[in-house]
Amino acid sequence: MKINRIITSLLVAGTLASCAPAITVKYDYDPKVNVRQFATYRIEADRQRNADPIVGSNLNQRRISDALDQSLKARGYKPVTQGEADLVIRFFMDSKDKQQIQSNGMYSPYSMWGYGGMNNGVYSRQYEENRVVINVLDARTNDIIWQGWATGQLNTRNKERDRDQAFRETVTSIMKNFPESAGQDYGAAR
After folding, report:
1. Which residue positions does the secretion signal occupy (predicted)?
2. Each residue's pLDDT tens digit, 14-31
3. The domain containing residue 134 runs over which residues?
4. For residue 122, what are the contacts with CB-CB under 8 A and spacing of at least 6?
């Protein structure tokens, strides 16, 4: 009976680990805006929303900024350090504690007869859910023309996972929905 409990516990632990929330990416845009008119950009962190000392740290802001810069340059946009940019790329990151509850649907008939049996098969897991939000604004009007966000477990405690790579992959996943190159309509870029 103990072996069955051990095997069941290992299976449930493996299932919970494999069911860790993946990064979910979504985006939205203003279809009335002609993206063809934009060619230059500047990147800035949203200082008010990046107030968290860990997820909003300068280190994480640098990671996101570098990944955004790489992605935009690859699409043909030009960075502007002095003067007016066509686009302002503003980003922030936040997090909240979440709980995942899962049932393995197992029930032991032995518990009906008072022999103990297995528990009810309900397990919970605490984790931190992160969100990276990228807002693309028309610098002239300060209106958001495109927005992309990723939600999931980005700030993982797994030492094997490289955080720089995790941020790069997350930003790349978000930005793959942004128009492919400057001077191209949004509809043509998708």
Report:
1. 1-22
2. 444 444 457 899 999 999
3. 22-100+127-189
4. 101, 102, 103
The CA-based dihedral angle spanning residues 143, 145, 146, 149, taken in that order and rounded to the nearest 10 degrees: 20
Q: What is the pLDDT of residues 64-110, one digit of tens each?
A: 999 999 999 999 999 998 778 999 999 998 877 766 677 666 555 55
Whether 183 maps to a domain, the answer reads yes
Angle (nearest 5°) at CA 88 between 185 and 165? 90
**Into how many domains does the chain fold?**
1
Annotate 89-115 with b (16+ C-beta within 10 A) or e (fewer): bbbbbebeeeeeeeebeeebeeeeeee
DSSP E strand stretches across the chain: 24-29, 40-45, 78-79, 87-103, 122-138, 143-152
What is the residue whose two structure tokens read 């490289």?
162
